[in-house]
Amino acid sequence: MKHKPRVPTPEDFPAPSHSPLVAARLGLWLGVAFGLCFVTGLLSHYIQHPPGWFTWPTRPVNLYRVTQGVHVLSGIAAIPLLLGKLWSVYPRLFVRPPLRQPIRLSAHILERISVLVLVCAAFFELVTGLFNVAQSYPWGFFFPTAHYAVAWLVVGALLLHIAVKLPVASAALRTPLRREDVGEAASTGRDDRDSSGRRAFLRTSAGVAGVAVLATAGVTVPWLRRVSPLAWRSASGPQGIPINRTAAAARIVVPPDWRLEIVWPGGRGTLSLAELTALPQRTAELPIACVEGWSVSANWTGVPVVQLLRRAGAPTGRPVRVSSLETDGLYAASTLPAAHAGDPLTLLALRVNGEELSADHGYPCRLIAPSRPGVLQTKWVARLEVLR
């Protein structure tokens, strides 16, 4: 006689890894990772697209390097933690909805929708983030805009999920891992086995997240590069510094009569490369810190932008628009906030690590400023425009 298939219930998944005690702790760790990723990502977005109220300091010079490194590495850590969290809670999918109780049914449906949005948005953020660090974009949308918008969906759905699950999670976090979930007597031996299984699953999840971070952290932590086999950037590249966009890809042609143009309200001046080279130079150790998370420090030599403006007779203490010989790139121009334009470490660099800039690093000159994303460190500079 054939038996009708029975719909599983959460009780059909007795493995210790499905315990609320495990799910709550993984949720806490995942919340920390998501929180770090969101806050640092928000900072990066505002640095590149600053609202009127936002300011970003020039010191310490490695500040953006740290925040963006934390952004990418916390996202990497979140991947195994999210998978572990989903494994621990998937039996909850088989909870039967309270069909005869309209209010509870509505709450049940709302919770399921919020969880669906949270999981889908989280996977979107993590997967597209991985493609971004690999500089691969097999989709038709603009990554920064979509990544920023979906991040708010993740945060909104996460806060709603926390509000719904807070009583259960709080109780689970206060309960020691040795406690038996279902109240069976410890003398049966199940408590010891479940306690050991719970701890093993949590250690494995944390260990995998730690290994993932260690295997990639060398992109931004120099002393970890030798033990980070999955780091997607290193010190390799022209003149020992990686690049994202070559001069050939940008279709750069430096005219033989190239001159730097300096423009301000009511005035204009130009400098040839020889004249620029003859000016007093300054050398500073500053990082190139890319939005993809990699960063490399180098010794840059050039003329401080503030000194160039003073020599030309242009006003200082104002934002400066820096334009490139590149004409069709998304970052062919950038705007230096007044604080960065006036910082003596913000250079129009002519040399790197003692060598004349190569074409791929921005010859004849490039911008290098402290605590700025690499996409805003404009290469192949042709014009400085002091804004009102």
TrEMBL record:
It holds the Pfam family Oxidored_molyb. Residues 255-387 form the Oxidoreductase molybdopterin-binding domain. SUPFAM superfamilies: Oxidoreductase molybdopterin-binding domain, Transmembrane di-heme cytochromes. Gene3D superfamilies: Oxidoreductase, molybdopterin-binding domain. It comes from the Bacteria. Keywords: Membrane, Transmembrane, Transmembrane helix. The chain crosses the membrane at residues 26-48, 68-88, 109-134, 146-164, 200-224. This is Molybdopterin-dependent oxidoreductase. InterPro entries: Di-haem_cyt_TM (IPR016174), Mopterin_OxRdtase_euk (IPR008335), OxRdtase_Mopterin-bd_dom (IPR000572), OxRdtase_Mopterin-bd_sf (IPR036374).
